[in-house]
Design a protein that fits this description.
The protein is 34% helix and 11% strand. It is of the alpha/beta class and 639 residues long. Strands 12-17-16-15-13-14 form a six-stranded mixed β-sheet, sandwiched between helices. The protein has a five-stranded parallel β-sheet with strand order 4-3-2-1-11. Strands 5-7-10 form a three-stranded parallel β-sheet.
């Protein structure tokens, strides 16, 4: 998913006219297959009938253009000023990209917006409700005031599958209470190279740990299909199918990206073991409702390297493997304008992806063009109606299972729970359990409340930095972006004598212990790729702060607040204690809980920590494996 880019409404209006013209030339028999209205007695409106029967009945009443509308997803930025476009296009779905929010970015503001769009959808002939999708990747992260959890690699460090389930149950509750019924989460990718800008979205480099954390799917969707209709659950999306964390550095052709959206060069056996395995579990154990194919490509070594196929065009993996062999019966949603990366003109891109098995298309600002193009491809016989019917049946199945035909508007029962103390307590627990203690010479940690503590580093007191990307906006941002507690505030809650100096310029005399909080500033996706303006190395400012504080104060603790391990090989001897704090989210007090011993350090590395940037990629199981800290490493303390 990407940040929405606004386009003019002129193109949309022109395309609407074009669709009307195209629909007018449909064969009369095609139009006659559906009648003018949906009687109250129509089987698809009867909640007591099996979902399969309701799907079949509704599908039989739909015209080709109505079916294609269900396969189309537009960005809210394209339709917000005129929601009647939802009705005219018969849209099946609307999404909010990162940072695409209502003017009133509050729980009720969200619910009002989604309901306004839903009213437009229910104004269509067959009154098929809208499915609203949003990236809730570490909480309902577009909503200011929502509970923001640590990112996925931090959750991998907890090794606590039940905690992950509880986290996503809360995320589902907060998301659905504010309107959206569908989340583009979780990422079940296996991150094999720390230079990837999405590293923090992966639970681990080890597919076994990723699979352990797929309890996230149960948290989102519930244990049974009927749970989907409950206001505490949402439709989940396993992403990005498959191999997006295993692409070769330097293989990306997307702008200035270096690894994101690149090529996974592998053989089928290795691909199955590393990249595909989490999806088998997602489908067969958790019944995930939707899957998002990756921007990336796969290049099989068996037939010679040099002929990669974009996942959005990969019939072998989308249909033959995922749908037929693994048994996936949900629907596939393309990533943001992903089909535009398929070779050929737009008609070729649409035709190729539909025939490969894609079911719904995230065409944020080109939905009218998509519908017009696909309709023409169907009329020309280049896309069989059977493929359209299969796609629409899968989409309608999810809408029936979510109970949207019975309750299309937002159930606001839990709206007051958004950002509640009970929910934030779970996020605080997650932040504390995710902390990984990597060095603790002389048992410097835990700290004592009576100590005079000198805190340095911008990341000690920057809410935006500790939340990371995908927080309010796509890339996230530094500063006071969301409510919560910073790490500094957590320290101040535990000790009376605290001196803070962001740049370590304040005098250190008289301090018993120094705490230097280093790390990264927010980024998301390929924008954060190493080589695209980023590096795994610590900044000069962070190195200077470590040098000053650790040389001036007898006891020195360093916390790394970052989306991935950073290179600390030369700095490590200067520290008495070193903690990987990841991106802990809105509850920085959870970091201080472990610092002061209220919670023991129990976290373990979900990824391998390299000695240098040039050592990447390095993963557990490699033949030449000599990291700074191995996968699974983590010291423990007692409460």
């Amino acid at each position: 998913m990407r940040h929405p880019h606004r386009r003019t409404a002129t193109r949309t209006r022109r395309s609407l006219i074009a669709i009307a013209v195209a629909a007018a030339v449909l064969p009369t028999a095609a139009v006659d297959t559906a009648f003018a209205g949906a009687p109250a007695s129509a089987p698809y409106l009867n909640p007591r009938l099996p979902v399969a029967q309701r799907v079949s009945d509704l599908l039989g009443r739909m015209t080709p253009q109505e079916k294609i509308g269900q396969m189309t997803q537009a960005e809210r930025g394209a339709i917000d000023s005129d929601p009647s476009q939802i009705t005219a296009l018969g849209l099946g779905s609307v999404l909010s990209g990162g940072g695409s929010v209502p003017a009133d970015n509050t729980p009720s503001g969200w619910a009002d917006m989604v309901d306004r769009y839903q009213a437009a959808a229910l104004n269509t002939r067959l009154k098929i409700p809208l499915l609203y999708g949003i990236d809730s990747v570490h909480g309902d992260n577009n909503l200011v005031g929502a509970t923001v959890f640590p990112h996925n690699n931090a959750m991998g460090a907890t090794r606590d599958a039940d905690l992950v389930r509880r986290e996503e149950q809360i995320t589902a509750t907060e998301t659905r209470a504010t309107g959206p019924q569908w989340v583009f989460a979780p990422c079940v990718c296996v991150s094999r190279d720390l230079r990837w800008g999405r590293t923090y979205e992966s639970f681990s480099e080890d597919p076994a740990l990723v699979m352990k954390m797929e309890t996230a799917l149960e948290g989102f969707q519930g244990r049974r299909t009927k749970d989907l209709a409950d206001p505490t659950h949402v439709l989940a999306t396993a992403k990005h199918y498959a191999g997006d964390g295993d692409t070769k550095f330097g293989s990306s052709t997307s702008g200035t990206y270096t690894i994101d959206q690149g090529v996974t060069v592998t053989d089928r056996r290795t691909f199955d073991r590393i990249d595909l395995a989490p999806y088998v579990l997602a489908v067969r154990k958790y019944g995930v409702g939707s899957i998002m194919p990756s921007f990336s490509s796969v290049d099989w070594t068996e037939d010679g390297v040099g002929n990669p196929v974009k996942m959005s065009a990969n019939k072998e993996l989308l249909t033959d493997v995922l749908k037929q062999k693994i048994g996936f019966d949900g629907f596939l949603i393309s990533d943001w304008e992903a089909i535009h990366q398929i070779p050929g003109d737009y008609a070729t891109q649409v035709r190729t992806s539909v025939n490969a098995g894609m079911d719904m298309f995230m065409e944020p600002y080109s939905s009218p063009q998509f519908e017009q193009t696909l309709l023409a491809e169907v009329q020309a016989g280049r896309v069989p109606m059977s493929r359209i019917d299969d796609a629409v049946s899968r989409i309608l199945k999810s809408k029936f299972e979510l109970g949207l035909f019975e309750h299309p508007y937002t159930d606001r029962t839990n709206i007051k729970s958004v950002g509640s103390p009970a929910h934030r307590a779970v996020a605080r627990e997650a932040a504390g359990k995710s902390q990984v203690l990597l060095k603790n010479s002389g048992d410097v940690l835990p700290l004592k409340k009576s100590q005079r503590i000198y805190v340095a580093g911008v990341n000690a007191n920057d809410m935006g930095n500790q939340a990371g990307g995908w927080t309010v906006t796509w890339q996230g941002g530094s500063g006071n972006t969301i409510p919560g507690t910073t790490i500094l505030q957590g320290i101040q809650q535990n000790a009376k004598n605290v001196t803070y100096s962001a740049d370590a310029s304040a005098p250190t005399a008289g301090s018993d212990v120094g705490v230097v909080v280093v790390g990264e500033t927010p980024y998301a996706e390929g924008v954060g790729d190493v080589g695209n303006g980023h590096t795994l190395n610590l900044s000069d400012a962070d190195k200077a702060a470590i040098d000053k504080v650790c040389s001036a104060i007898k006891k020195c603790v360093v916390l790394d607040v970052a989306g991935r391990p950073q290179i600390v090989t030369d700095e490590l001897p200067k520290m008495d204690a070193f903690v990987m704090s990841w991106l802990p989210g809105s509850e920085g007090a959870g970091v201080s809980d472990t610092l002061f011993g209220h919670r023991a350090y129990t976290g373990r590395l979900p990824v391998t920590w390299p000695r240098s940037e040039s050592q990447e990629p390095i993963n557990v199981g490699d033949k030449n494996y000599h990291p700074l800290f191995p996968y699974g490493y983590g010291l423990r303390t007692h409460r």
